[in-house]
Amino acid sequence: MTLQQLQYFVTVCKYQNLTKAARELSISQPGISTSIRELETECGFALFERRPNSITLTDQGENFLREAEHLLRAYQKLKKNSKLIAEENTILRVGVAPMGTSAVFPRLRKDFLAAHPNITLEVTENSTESLYQKIDTGELDFALCVSIALPDENYRYVTVGHSRLLFCVNQKSPLACEEIHSLRQIGQMPLVMLPDYYSQTKYLKRLFREADCTPNVIQYTSQVFTIFQHIRENAAAGFLSEDIARQDKELVSFALQEIENASITMIRKKDAKTFPAVETFIHYLRSSKKKWGENNSVQLLNV
């Protein structure tokens, strides 16, 4: 018994006429007659009462029709759901940290999508800590994070670059003409920083405490652009990643001795479920690692 036989049977019932059913199905009348007889043989009972100029369903045929229609509806629903599942499996949920990734992620996304236009990247921007949480709960498939320490053994990762956080002022600021090497030299300069729940801010405040000084933070914002604009307007100073700080000639930036280089890593939960798009992205990261430098760490070894 095949789905095609059931479809032929339901169509014949619709018209109660073999010729009209054959015309709708674009097959010959002998072909549909043969299919119905084979179905009756397999069922073990007659589906139709045949008269010279008409056919009508038997009682058993009517019961069989209800079951056949139910099965065909279920099959169509399964086909529709399978398509939706396939579409879901072409979507990758990627989280990105707002500071330090702008020199890497746009090129990474462009190159990947150029090679795999059937895959969609759904991008979420958040703090590194929040991205790790979303990776742990399965809300994200991958996250591009910036941190001093590399991920622990619960994650697989590829290091795709490095980022240096710079202290930035406007070129008209009194500090612009000085040689700033330490947090102590910032003094009470007004600062705009990312909120306290960002790992970057936690890291900087720890460094301030270790330097025995208190930062004069006048505003917290989750928007890197807001920090950038305050510095451009000479309304405050701030900390920007090197790739952002070097973009504007009105900014003067300083590499402070207390601030270490950070690693930019694409992470994934070690035992997270996989599907074809995930495997494709991992293969891309592996094959592209030369772009990120021969000395970069690669721990995304198993899908």
From TrEMBL:
Keywords: DNA-binding, Transcription, Transcription regulation. InterPro entries: HTH-type_LysR_regulators, LysR_HTH_N, LysR_subst-bd, WH-like_DNA-bd_sf, WH_DNA-bd_sf. Residues 1-58 form the HTH lysR-type domain. GO terms for cellular component: cytosol. Gene3D superfamilies: 3.40.190.290, Winged helix-like DNA-binding domain superfamily/Winged helix DNA-binding domain. The keyword Transcription regulation applies. GO terms for molecular function: DNA binding; DNA-binding transcription factor activity. It comes from the Bacteria. Pfam families: HTH_1, LysR_substrate. PANTHER family: HTH-TYPE TRANSCRIPTIONAL REGULATOR YBHD, HTH-TYPE TRANSCRIPTIONAL REGULATOR YTLI. Belongs to the LysR transcriptional regulatory family. This is HTH lysR-type domain-containing protein. It comes from [Clostridium] clostridioforme 90A8.
